[in-house]
Amino acid sequence: MAVPRKSLRGFLAQAKDALRTAVVSSQKITLVVGNESADLDSMTCSLMYAYIRTMMPPSSAFSSVYVPITNMPFSDIQIRPEFPTLFRHANIEPGHLITLDDLPHMSVMKSELKPENTQWILVDHNALQGQLGKIYSERVAGVIDHHDDEGKVQQDTGCEPRVVIKTGSCTSLVTEFCQHTWDKLSNSGIDSGAARGQGDSLSEAGAAVELWDAQLAYLGLASILIDTANLQSKDKTTEHDSKAVEYLEAKIMACPQLSAGFNRSEFYKEINTAKTDIGGLKLRDILRKDYKEWNARGQKLGISSVVKSIAFMQKKAGEEANTQSLDKAYLEALRSFSKERGVDLYAVMTTSTSSEGEFQRELLVLAFNDTAISAAKKFATDASEELRLEDWHGSDGEAHGHQDDEYWRQVWWQRNVQHSRKRVAPLLRESMN
Ligand SMILES: [Mn+2]
Q: Domain of 340?
C-alpha cells in the first residue's frame, strides 16, 4: 500500500523512525545505501530512490519503507559543504540525513539489525564494501550503478532493479528508473488530494505536490550537473544524463513557486563553489572527503580524489606542520593517512585548472610493502599508455619519485584526463592480481 504523499523532509523523519522501530522490534526493513565516498551522487541517489519507492512500493516489496543511508558518520557533513548548500533547495536540514550513526553500533550491529530482517539496495556502487559488506553482502537485493560491474550482485533481483550502465552520474539512472512511478505519484497526489492535509482545497494540495516534486528534482539535478560539469564534459555526459536533466528541470518548471528563480548555470555554480571550497579544511579531511577503498588478494587499496592540485596540498601540509619542507610534510601527511586506514597501496588523484585554464589531472601512487610495490610498478607499466602518464615535477623541479625498502612513490600528470577513479581504480586493482 502506498503511503500518503509527503515532502522529502516528512519522508526522512518517517524513514528514521521506521529504522529505529525495525531495530527495536526486529522488523523487516529495506536500506538504500550509496558508496563509501558518500559524495553528492551517492547521497542523492539513495534519497531519491528511497523516497519514490516508499511513496509507491512494488506489491512484493520486502518492507513498506525504504530507508536511505548516507554511507558516512554524521560528523563528516562538515567536510561536505555542498550538502547543506543543496539541502536549502530541497527544504531539508543536515539533521534529517540518515547516516551510519543511525545504525546500531558496529559491535552489536549483527544482533540488533539481523541480516535476515534486512534487504539492501546499492546505489552508485555494486559491491557492498567495508563493515557493512562483511555483515550484509548476502542481503543485497538490487542495484543501480554506473561503475564497472564487479559481478557481485545476482542477475535475478526480482522486483528490485539490476541496472549497471556507464553514465556521468548515477542519479541519472535512478531518475530514469523512478520516472514512471514519480509521474504517477505527481498525478495521483493531485487527483486524490493525498496531500490535502497541507491545504484546504484541491488546488492547494496540488501546489504542495508540485513544490515537493521540485524540491526532489533540485536534489537530483545537483549531482548530475556536478558529475558532468554542467553537461559540458563531452567525456562524461551521456544521453541518460541529458535526458534526466530535462526531466528534472521540467519538474522544477512545473512549480510556479520555484520556477521563476531557477537558472541551471547559476545553480551549478552555487553547488560547485561549495564543493570546491576546501581551503578551510585540514589536509587529513581533504584526503578523506572523497575516499574509497578495496581489498584485493589480502592487500588493501585506498584512493582519495581531491579537487585541488598537489601543490595546494603540499602548501597546506607545510602550513600545518609549520615547516618550509613542503614535500616532506606532505609525504608525512600521506603516510599517516595511509597508516590510519591500514592501506598497502594508496593513490591520490587530483583535478585542477592550469594557469591557461586547462582541466588537468595528477596521479600519485604510494606503496608500503613488497607486494604493493610490485603491484604499483606493474600499474606504472601497464596503465601508462591508457592514462598517458607523464613525469611530474614539483615547483622545486623535483620528480618526487622514491624507492627503498620502506616505500615506493611515483607522481605523474595523467594526460588522458577523461579517466576518473572509475577507470583508475579498476586498473590499480588489476595490477594487484
Ligand atoms: Mn557516482
A: 283-432
